[in-house]
Design a protein that fits this description.
binds guanosine-5',3'-tetraphosphate, 28% helix, 8-stranded antiparallel β-sheet, Elongation Factor Tu (Ef-tu), domain 3, Alpha-Beta Plaits, Rossmann fold, alpha+beta, single chain
Length: 533
């Protein structure tokens, strides 16, 4: 197959949702359709069990599973589908944000009873900002939930999406009869039997026909006719271009647990979802079909074996063909590297591969040379953009608890930060080190891993910081900037890349500082177009 054909048959996407909406269940059903797994229950849930949120051993367990589920690949109707795992738990939100830089589209799963939840809002916002094409799947229709129109309204308002239903439920919960598929113009009757792989599909070209009454009863038939008429009047027609530019989001209804409505979702997905897309680097836009290989690291996973510090760097291939045992350039540290055992991912297995194509993910063994965001090329000097850090939510000083192990501590912190477990800041005034995390849980994880993997011990000390803001002066020689640096010196730090960061101790301080120094922009994300350029 030519490079172009390989690109054309690939779809790389992520499923995002609030925990418990049904992401794992849906993933599993998709794999079942692809024949990648044989039975339900094969995909282990990588979520943190309820009630275990402060148990870091649970996180360790979870890390083990999440290597296996980081990338799940399968083939369906000749299409190679790569699903990238996006943890729903908020303490891992940063991981998910980074993974979203490696997907070409997403499926958003919403629980019919709970509607739009907090994590979904945050994740969809990131996708919206990047115009990532999204399909919405409203799950658990076998249960009583919100009215379908009410839910569509909620999705439009809370997630700020422009939706169009491509399927619509007939009844719900106890009265759930099935789904009318507007995309394929047919009806699937719900039998509640999760063992069935394919539901009964009945073509209904004309919903006015009496066949519909016979099939589902006169009352439900009349209701669905009215609902479909309303949909026709209220919602925009589906248009693939608008979907691909992130301007329109099709919605499907179903029940992942009952394997209902999943085939419809998958069939539509393979038809409309984008193939691997071009990506911007700091010098140019790189197209997948270019001959030269390039890719970037979006995730690093430490090995579970504490005695070996080897890690797996997940590289998304952006262009060309990745080949085993071939020299590539690690652009940041200008080193040539070749990989003798690159892993590709299939369902739950990983396997050494000789070649991989744009859209695919390869797992490269690494002993510490990769950082999140690093670019590999065939020699071209360019760096892929768009792996931002967000302001952490929790901050603590980190102190060395064992003076004889300061080297180990430094190395451990350094490597954990490269992996993206947390962010490290160094205060300008006194050089003290501050760790910032998205969840409170990470502090325990860091302490535990420093001890077990690096033989170092640390102590934390509280620090009152509300947000870390990346400082972006219009003119770094201006008096205003000099004044800012002098007045705020106690609250200034450098991040790992040497960028200047301001620690605001409250939302009020942040607001006051921004209005006192209007020419200095304070960003909550590390990647921004600088004002000075
Ligand atoms: P997550 O990955 O998004 O966190 O959700 P997951 O798939 O683990 O699903 C969360 C719970 O919702 C699970 O139940 C799962 O069985 C259930 N679920 C998923 N899809 C459906 C559906 O279509 N209908 C109904 N009624 N339930 C659904 P659990 O009791 O928390 O876990 P388990 O013991 O069943 O694994």
């Amino acid at each position: 197959m030519s490079l172009q054909q390989e690109i054309d048959r690939r779809k790389t996407f992520g499923i995002i949702s609030h925990p418990d909406a049904g992401k794992t269940t849906l993933t599993e059903k998709l794999l079942l359709f692809g024949g990648a797994i044989q039975e339900a229950g094969a995909v282990k849930s990588n979520k943190i069990k309820k009630g275990a949120t402060s148990d870091f051993m649970e996180i360790e367990r979870q890390r083990g599973i999440s290597v296996a589920t980081s990338v799940l690949a399968f083939e369906y109707e000749g299409i190679k589908i790569n699903i990238l795992d996006t943890p729903g738990h908020k303490d891992f939100a940063e991981d998910t944000f980074r993974t979203l830089t490696a997907v070409d589209s997403v499926i958003v799963v919403i629980d019919v009873a709970k509607g739009v939840e907090e994590q979904t809002e945050k994740l969809v916002e990131v996708c919206r900002m990047r115009n990532i094409p999204m399909i919405v799947f409203i799950n658990k229709l076998d249960r009583e939930g919100k009215d379908a129109f009410e839910l569509l309204d909620e999705v439009e308002q809370k997630l700020k999406l422009r939706v169009t239903p491509l399927s619509f439920p007939i009844g719900m919960g106890y009265d759930f009869k099935g789904i009318y598929n507007l995309w394929e113009k047919n009806i699937n009757l719900f039998s509640g039997d999760s063992r069935k792989n394919i539901e009964e599909t009945i073509e209904i070209e004309d919903i006015a026909s009496a066949d519909l009454d016979q099939l589902i009863g006169s009352e439900p038939a009349q209701t669905i006719r009215e609902e479909l008429e309303l949909i026709d009047q209220v919602y925009p027609k589906f248009n693939r271009e608008e979907y691909l530019t992130g301007d329109l989001q099709p919605v499907f209804f179903g029940s992942a647990l009952n394997n209902f409505g999943v085939r419809e979702l998958l069939d539509c997905f393979i038809e409309i979802a984008p193939k691997p897309q071009p990506k911007s680097s700091d010098t140019r836009l790189v197209k997948p079909e270019e001959n030269e290989f390039s890719g970037f690291v979006f995730k690093i996973h430490a090995n579970m074996d504490p005695k070996h510090r080897d890690r797996l760097a997940f590289v998304k291939i952006v262009s060309g063909i990745f080949k085993r045992n071939t020299n590539y350039v690690h652009v940041r540290n200008k080193k040539k590297m070749k990989f003798s055992s690159p892993n590709a991912f299939f369902a739950e297995k990983k396997q050494i591969v000789d070649t991989s194509y744009p859209g695919d993910i390869v797992g490269l063994h690494d002993t510490g040379s990769f950082k999140i965001g690093d670019t590999l090329t065939q020699g071209e000097q360019m760096q892929y953009k768009g792996i931002p850090s967000f302001s952490p939510e929790f901050f603590k000083y980190i102190n060395n608890a064992d003076p004889l192990k300061s080297k180990q501590l430094e190395k451990g912190i350094d490597q954990l930060m490269d992996e993206g477990v947390a962010q490290l800041f160094t205060l300008e005034l006194n050089g003290r080190k501050v760790i910032g995390t998205v969840g409170a849980l990470q502090f325990e994880v860091i302490q535990y891993r420093l001890e077990h993997e690096y033989g170092a011990s640390c102590r934390y000390e509280n620090l009152n910081v509300h947000k870390a803001c990346w400082v972006d002066p219009l003119d770094d020689k201006s008096d205003e900037f000099k004044d800012f640096k002098r007045v705020k010196s106690k609250f200034l730090a450098k991040d790992k890349r040497g960028q200047l960061v301001f620690f605001a101790d409250s939302a009020f301080t942040l607001q006051m500082t921004q209005s006192k120094y209007p020419s200095i922009k304070l960003h909550l994300v590390s990647e921004f177009e600088t004002q000075a350029n």
